[in-house]
Automatic annotation (TrEMBL):
This is CAAX amino terminal protease self-immunity. Keywords: Hydrolase, Membrane, Protease, Transmembrane, Transmembrane helix. The lineage of its organism: Bacteria, Bacillati, Actinomycetota, Actinomycetes, Micrococcales. Residues 1-32 are annotated as: Disordered. Residues 174-268 form the CAAX prenyl protease 2/Lysostaphin resistance protein A-like domain.
Amino acid sequence: MAESTEAPRAVPAPAPDWTPPPAAAPATTRRERRRTGAEIWIVLGLSLGQSAVYALVALGVRLYDAIAASTGLDSQTATLNASRSERPYLDLVYQVLAIGFALVPVVLALYLLSARGPGTLRRIGFDAARPGRDTAWGFALAAAIGVPGLAFYALGRALGITVTVEASALDPYWWTVPVLILSALKNGLLEEVIAVAYLQERTADLGWGRWKFILASSLLRGSYHLYQGFGPFLGNVVMGVVFSWFYTSRWGRHRVMPLVVAHTVLDVVAFVGYASVPDAWLRALGVL
């Protein structure tokens, strides 16, 4: 039998399991870049940038007080979830209103991104398309960040460069735990949507590379925690590097939901745990 002279067909290479979503065309004209830059500053000025400025001022006041009193920052206290009224139900109303209004910048950021056309939420992974995978990655990230974060806090306390962080000062009402959970979710949405998803999209429009974005996002995250001292600042910079790197990696796949889950879990443990764990345990952990 004569051998076939037909050339063997090439076997196509398997497609990669994930490719980054197509990037929008970056701002090319000077006017477009200026508008994009102004938009970033406006969104940050209404949200995390505002918090960063207040945190920097608070740190300056704390340092001045520490020097004047010849004591360390560890002698001062920062309260995260403070009571807003002596009347329980009025306090509840104020707490819910504060959480709701704090999320308005998130809605604004998503609205501005939607100018690109439909599919904005899917583009940044702010949807329920992969609940199992997002939740699994979220808990894994929370575990990876939680222990080092506590270590940075304890080290800062030992060195006298971190204030005592009181995670909750709410009285034990029936609504205290639900409000703390909502506060944790608010932090996860606000910080991850704006400091990661929104900022990555907009800095990409400006032509920024991946690592420039990671540096900016991480320093921003650390800056609005400066009121807690230098330990939490460094810990949150590390958290920012891990989260922004993961978001832009083949594992994160430009999905912000795992970051929201991770951040919410971390804050729920911190807020509810602080209110539930005996003071003796907190002192043993170096939290008090």
